[in-house]
Specification:
The protein has three helices and no strands. It is mainly α and 124 residues long. Helix 2 runs antiparallel to helix 3.
Length: 124
């Protein structure tokens, strides 16, 4: 019985090592292929106009969606506050803090994005 356990454990160790070695070989082979592909495409240039257009479209889309969500949530909280009783008004006021923090993060992020893009334009 003890011999069977030793043989089983030895077999499992050999199996695991074999799989690990073949996986490492595959990783290195794919890495070398990726590097050689990059070296062969050195003459390709990046289309900066398309990159700027995509960035502007994404910026505008996310800003519109974020602003819309912020306005809708703010309106819902305002309506809840106006129609609520005293206990519910306290709950609405408690939910205003996360709402204001999320608005600050949202618009601060878009401000930083726009600032970074403006600074990058000056360097090109």
């Amino acid at each position: 019985m003890k011999t069977l356990k030793i043989i089983t454990i030895t077999f499992l160790i050999i199996l695991i090592l074999t799989k690990t070695i073949s996986a490492c070989d595959e990783i290195f082979t794919k890495g070398d292929d990726w590097i050689s592909t990059g070296r062969s495409n050195l003459d390709m240039t990046m289309n900066t106009t398309q990159l700027k257009d995509s960035s502007n479209k994404m910026y505008n889309l996310l800003l519109i969606v974020g602003s819309g969500v912020a306005v809708i949530v703010g309106a819902v909280l305002g309506i809840k506050y106006m129609t609520a009783g005293i206990e519910e008004k306290v709950k609405v006021k408690e939910s205003l803090v996360p709402y204001l923090i999320s608005c600050a993060v949202l618009f601060g992020t878009f401000g930083i994005w726009k600032l970074a893009i403006t600074i990058m334009k000056n360097f090109t």
